[in-house]
Amino acid sequence: TPRTAIVAALHDELASVLALMPDEQKQVIGGRAFWVGHLHGQEVVAVLSGIGKVAAATTATLLIERFHVQRIVFTGVAGGLGPGVRVGDVVLARSFLQHDMDASPLFPRHEVPGYGRARFDADSGLADALELACERMLGALPPQLDASTVQAFALQTPRLHQGLLISGDRFVATTAESAQLQRELPEALAVEMEGAAFAQVCHDFGVPLAVVRTISDRADDDAPVDFPRFLRDVASRYSGAIVREL
Ligand code: ADE
Questions:
Q1: Shortest-distance atom of ligand 1 to CA 217
Q2: Which one of 87, 139, 197, 220 has the minimum C-beta count within 10 Å?
Q3: pTM
Q4: In its keyword annotation, does this UniProt entry include Cell membrane (predicted)?
Q5: In this prediction, what percent of the chain has a pLDDT beyond 90?
């Protein structure tokens, strides 16, 4: 089986994945910790990318060039944009776009210069495998959540959404900015800060990528409160459960 990278931006998002690796060896390169080992018998490199597109692109390049991974799975949290994308739901990216890319008027808004396109696709086979993993995990509320956590976040049975995920070097934390993004990109399901950068690098090197994100906040005025609470109490359970199923 191919060597797989499992990536998250933050430690809370990766903790439960690392807990599934019995033999990981830590290597620090470029200020990042790479954990090389096995997960359910498969060769895995787990890594924290750090936050933002530059950190993401650097991590993706190192995973491909130094660690020779053959596929990349990114997991973590995102802010919900699309109507019906609620806190606790899961978004599986089928395509990616950098919402802060703007070389207009030289190039159309959002187009990445030199690529002739604004959108990059997830690998359909890898995304299909993640879809199956999510469906098995989401039949009920995610495992290991106690009643008080479910109540605190008003979690309902999570829904799986698939489509466009947008990334930019901004934490979207006002209802006005969220509304602006929804007007500009009505198909966007959720916003985060790394996925589309991974997608560009994976496109360059021909490495399959899939990204799955749990919704931690609605990218609105409440996001600064919802995001850290969700990250601390819930996020890692989701990513751990999804990666285990995968
Ligand atoms: N990741 C999780 N929530 C986010 C938000 N509101 N903006 C950007 N990235 C996020």
A1: 3
A2: 139
A3: 0.95
A4: no
A5: 76
